[in-house]
Backbone:
């Protein structure tokens, strides 16, 4: 396990020590930046690491605050050379007043999938459905993995970096058919041109 720790407060140091001791080799890396603890685990250890973080003395992260997907394909202007999709989980220990972030990368870019955490925190249910809907990340073991935010018949996953801004299809009411229909997008792509000031010595600048 790698550990990258900046100067930390005693409380943060206690959290890091507790998480490190509890997870052992299940943690691939632990970072502390901006007074936040981030644990990176492999997809193989993701579910078990979640159980440990919830139950281990000194951790006791009883509450899942947030779970979201991340698409790293354009991270740092496309210089990212790691796996494309990740799931990030934010956990809170109410009893110990501490927080931790857990990140796991999906091992397959073509079919991103990790275990579901609904058996550990039932509150993960809708968060995982949202990440499935918007990023196409499959959560194995989820009892009811359906789209949550997009419409019936929606094509694609709109938070992926390669998803077009205007989408693939649009819907409208057809007065002849007297119902809503789907059709290819009719909006033409716009090129955003930065504003160029052509006036010499604008604003007193030489």
Residues:
């Amino acid at each position: 396990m790698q550990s990258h720790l900046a100067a930390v407060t005693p409380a943060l140091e206690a959290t890091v020590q507790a998480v490190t001791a509890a997870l052992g080799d299940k943690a691939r890396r632990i970072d502390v930046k901006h007074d936040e603890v981030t644990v990176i685990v492999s997809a193989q250890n993701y579910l078990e690491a979640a159980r440990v973080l919830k139950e281990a003395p000194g951790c006791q992260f009883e509450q899942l605050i947030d779970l979201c997907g991340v698409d790293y394909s354009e991270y740092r202007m496309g210089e990212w050379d790691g796996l494309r999709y990740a799931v990030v989980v934010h956990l809170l220990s109410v009893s110990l007043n501490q927080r931790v972030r857990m990140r796991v990368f999906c091992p397959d870019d073509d079919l991103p999938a990790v275990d579901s955490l609904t058996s550990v925190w039932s509150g993960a249910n809708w968060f995982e459905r949202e990440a499935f809907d918007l990023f196409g990340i499959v959560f194995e073991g989820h009892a009811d993995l359906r789209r949550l935010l997009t419409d019936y018949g929606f094509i694609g996953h709109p938070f992926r970096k390669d998803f077009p801004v205007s989408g693939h299809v649009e819907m409208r009411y057809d007065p002849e058919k007297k119902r809503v229909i789907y059709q290819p997008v009719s909006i033409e792509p716009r090129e955003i041109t930065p504003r160029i000031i052509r006036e010499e010595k604008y604003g007193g600048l030489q």
Summary: Residues 39 and 81 are 20 Å apart (CA to CA). Helices lie at 10-23, 46-55, 124-135.
